[in-house]
Amino acid sequence: MRLGLALIDLAGLAALLLWGVRMVRTGLQRAFGPRLRLLMGSALGSRWRSFLAGILITALLQSSTATALMATGFVAKKVVGLVPALAIMLGANVGTTLIVQILSFPVFAAAPAAILTGYLLFGSRNTTAHDLGRVFIGIGLILSALHQMVRLADSYADSPALKAFLETVSRQPLLEALCAAAFAWAAHSSAAAILLVASFAAKGVVSLPAALALTLGANLGAAINPIFESTTGSDPAFRRLPMGNLLNRLVGFAGGLFLLPLLSSRLESWEPNPARAVADFHTFLNLALALLFFPWLSAYGRWLTTWLPDRKEKEALGQPLYLDPAILGTPAVALGSAAREALRLTDLLKGMLEKFREIFVRGDRLKLTPIQRAGEAVDKIHQAIRSYLSALDRDLMSESERRRLEDILAFSASLEQAAGVAEKELLALATQRIEKNLVLPATAQAELSLIFERILANLQRACSLFVTPDLRVARTLAEEKDAFRGLEARASAAHFERMRANPADQDPAGALEVKVVRQLKRINGLVVASAAYPILEREGELLPSRLRSASAEEAAKE
């Protein structure tokens, strides 16, 4: 029973520790995120500068995962090569050890002062001071959680059940290390896991060899997160950097377990303080890996490129280009990237409509396959945008940023529906046009071509509204829905007149034209809804329904 309560207390303190780490990271990203990215971008021209930048940025953000996501974003956009990015990660692994080194000293007394400073700064109207307030509060929470962990370890150090459990696990260093790896992976932080191990070692809850095995596992586990978070797409090339970092740590994991008896005996004689021994081992491990891999980074990068080649261009059509997970901690920048990605949907939809025009007017059957690929790409990008925006922390967002998030979701959803109508309905009609060799009259071809031009112009207006909201342009775009109703009615009436003039001819080409115009009307309605409706709704110019209420009808009769 006591052991169960101890584990619950430990889980709660670990959650407090992780929340503090998160507050520090998000506060620094909001205050200095663009500057940190600029620092990384300027340093990536040299291996040594990259290595030092990785140490600095990771020490500030207290997260090698955040650094990995930043560097992966640069590599994915081909801003920088893989080799300097690998050097960044070697530095990031060393940078993680600095915070462990600092917190392994007795600095817990500074927790109240840090929280008080953070509270005062958090109430400031200055944005940077407000964000730095989050940082100081996070530091205070980290110190408080670590202090409570030490006290908890002290109170349960003599528990027979806890000792028996840890003694059982410590007989299997590999199992022990894997448990620590799982904790670090779940916690998104090797620093948190290693600090917990250090506090246990300081109170004698675990032996030094067991503590070193746990450190090896925690160092490995935190390298797993960037592999799954580095990209919302599936291009293997985007995983070269995180996979390279994981393999680097895996070498340290295997080598450390093999040399564990020798290393633990040397450390016991060199550093009598177990907590300091754990911190020193963590630092020496990552420094040794950096020295081992640094001379071979070029060859290592070539091997990773061969193992994880670039996806072919036609397969990469639906690959997101601008959704960088490293900037999720800065909502304003992340929303800009999501908006830029959403605009790619308009390019894909525009390409689909232009190809449909060639099919219906000229009967070009070669356009069918590209249309299907574009439709699939729209689905993938839309899903990626939704997943990316769902990862944003709304607590960090202002009211205007939340509104922008909703606009991006509405814009991308409407365009995805429009592409769906084109892919399913128009594609079926295009196939019918080709298989039955239905040729429209010259006048109908000219009219249909003009309708396509009109919907493409409306799509361009929707893009402009999405980037720069304008009430007058929104009204003009909304009026296009009525115009397309008139176009459909005119096409239907012309088809009916041709049938009346020649009852023996069912006018299949005319019937096809009416169906095409009807689907184009649906697509145009979705294009209008994508950008014009949010603006008109905020200005109070969009009615909730076109149906007249009963009271309005009675008033009209009177």
Report on the architecture of this protein.
This protein is mostly helical. The chain is 79% helix and 0% strand. It has 22 helices and no strands. The chain has helices at 2-43, 47-61, 64-76, 82-103, 111-122, 127-156, 160-170, 173-187, 190-202, 208-221, 225-229, 240-258, 260-270, 274-293, 297-307, 331-362, 368-390, 399-435, 442-467, 471-501, 508-538, 550-557. Helix 3 packs antiparallel against helix 4, helix 12 (240-258) packs across helix 15 and helix 20 (471-501) packs antiparallel against helix 21. The longest helix has 42 residues, at 2-43. The radius of gyration is 31 Å and the shape is elongated.
Walk me through the topology.
Elements: H1 2-43, H2 47-61, H3 64-76, H4 82-103, H5 111-122, H6 127-156, H7 160-170, H8 173-187, H9 190-202, H10 208-221, H11 225-229, H12 240-258, H13 260-270, H14 274-293, H15 297-307, H16 331-362, H17 368-390, H18 399-435, H19 442-467, H20 471-501, H21 508-538, H22 550-557
Our measurement of the CA-to-CA distance between the termini, rounded to an integer number of angstroms, reads 79 Å
Bin the strand percentage.
Answer: under 5%
- Can you count the helices? 22
Mean pLDDT: 81
Low-confidence stretches: 546-558
Helix fraction bin: over 70%
Structural class: mainly alpha
The coarse overall form would be elongated
SSE string: HHHHHHHHHHHHHHHHHHHHHH
How would you sum up the major sheet?
Answer: none
